[in-house]
Amino acid sequence: MFSLTAVLNKFPGTTTSEFRGQARVVVPAASAWELLRTLKEEYEFDLLSDVTCVDYLNYRDATDRYGMVYNIVRTSDNVRLLVRSFLNDPDPTIPSVTNLWLGADWLEREVYDMFGITFAGHPDHRRILCPDEFVAYPLRKDYPLQGRGERHNFPVLTRREA
User: S-S: 73 plus which of 47, 67, 122, 149, CB 3.0-4.6 Å?
Assistant: First the structure.
């Protein structure tokens, strides 16, 4: 039986909360992979629904820059859980969960491409949305809304060329 109290006892430094019936666990980045493995293997959270990131740059009272968010589900009874972990510059890195859920492959690549978060142990750590030549991370809060003028550097494909 899953309980947030059991998670707190097993992983020191972990906090939990609940809002409108949605449970959330905040875990230090160093313990994130082990917590997610435990949730999958011991508590049968068999579906990784989403992996995303939030940039808290200039956000009121934020002490960390990036918030990783893992949305996992136990499909047998539709219990959902948000697992959050926080990272900071200059090297925002967290272990990959592709060895737990194969579906994390493209989700982690998207977070890498848009935010620059490195997933240690990822089997195919490369951009998925932006061209390989692109050097910035467009969903970071310090990226200009109009871009940095890099669009003219990339080839324009037309239907005839594609």
Answer: 47
